[in-house]
Amino acid sequence: MKLVSMLMFLPLVANAATSFTGCSIPQQSQLNAAISAAQSYISAASAYIDSHNSATPRYTTWFGTFTASRHGAVASIFGRLKWNNLASFTYDCSTCHEPNEYAYVYPNQFGKIYLCGSFWRAPLTGTDSKAGTLISQASTFTQNGGAEAYDFSQKGCKHLANVNPEGAVQNADNYQYFAENNPPLS
């Protein structure tokens, strides 16, 4: 019955179109590229987590000391993200006027991402990328596990993983950096 429910949902997700609010044609083009790159990052990160059931440099860098429980929590969030179709989300390019912020969401408003000034200056992929920003924001939706925003820098997220693995597993940007995997860790 659970599988049937999921299969009934898939065509709705697959056929959903991207919605843009206040986005110029160039911004829409950048977003479409970021969506595609983010989906690739999510697929790769989810496959990595599913195939590694013990400590690895990549896992411990972003999520700290390995435990089965924390690994399960990370796998759950990436699993939920994998089922998202970021191309079905709504992207608002006109509401946020903060030049030094990347984006924000309201956790209970699934599928709507508000983009800010730093997003448009970010590279498509790599560290602090447009694709990574979409992953970070999507991970904060309650439906995806409700990650929090404790720390935003790569250095800060590594430190959080080292001193507070539970916090790292709950921090949206740790998911972003794990998915971006830059520089590459095995």
Describe the structure.
The chain is 55% helix and 6% strand. Helix 2 (25-51) packs antiparallel against helix 4 and helix 2 packs across helix 6. The model is unreliable at 1-15 (pLDDT under 50). It has 186 residues and is α/β, with parallel strands linked by helices. It is built from nine helices and four strands. Strand 3 (103-104) and strand 4 form a beta hairpin.
Largest sheet: 4 strands, mixed
Rough outline: globular
User: Structural class of the secondary elements?
Assistant: alpha/beta
Element-by-element helix/strand order:
HEHHHEEEHHHHH
Q: Note the gap between the termini.
A: 38 Å
Which regions have little confidence, pLDDT < 50, spanning 5+ residues? 1-15
Say what oligomer this is. single chain
Radius of gyration: 16 Å
What's the count of strands? 4
Kindly report the spatial arrangement of strands forming the biggest sheet: 1-2-4-3
Residue-averaged pLDDT: 92
Q: How would you describe this structure in keywords?
A:
four-stranded mixed beta sheet, alpha/beta, zinc, 186 residues, globular, Lysine-specific metallo-endopeptidase domain-containing protein, 55% helix, metalloendopeptidase activity
